[in-house]
Design brief:
It is a single chain. The protein is mainly α.
Length: about 120
């Protein structure tokens, strides 16, 4: 192991003054050119298009999830025709884990089978 200091002056970018100045001017000019391009209306519309589409996709996804998970548990029919619909009654039974007796099942499905 050596206690000698390492000479890093070769890595100094300002060591070659004229080259450094050209580099700074070139970077500044690229920045000015990019700024001029960004001031157009079309560039602003394109720049905002991607985040707007991402936001719309997120809102659509969240809305779809909200609709899918907001299935009414133990929902009651809002009209008399919905209460008579066998599909609605069967779905309500399935959603609430209700176990109706055999006569009620046959009544909903429309079969009498001597249960009069």
């Amino acid at each position: 192991m050596s206690d000698d200091k390492i000479d890093l002056s070769v890595l100094d970018p300002t060591h070659d003054g004229p080259r450094w100045e050209r580099l700074v001017v070139a970077v500044a000019e690229r920045g000015r050119a990019a700024r001029r391009r960004r001031l157009t209306v079309s560039f602003q519309l394109v720049a905002w298009l991607r985040p707007a589409l991402a936001a719309a996709a997120c809102l659509g996804l969240l809305g779809g999830v909200a609709i899918a998970t907001s299935a009414p548990s133990g929902a009651t029919p809002t009209t008399a025709s919905a209460a008579d619909d066998p599909a609605f009654v069967l779905a309500a039974w399935a959603a609430t884990s209700e176990r109706p007796d055999t006569a009620e099942i046959l009544r909903v499905l429309g079969a009498s089978h001597g249960t009069d």
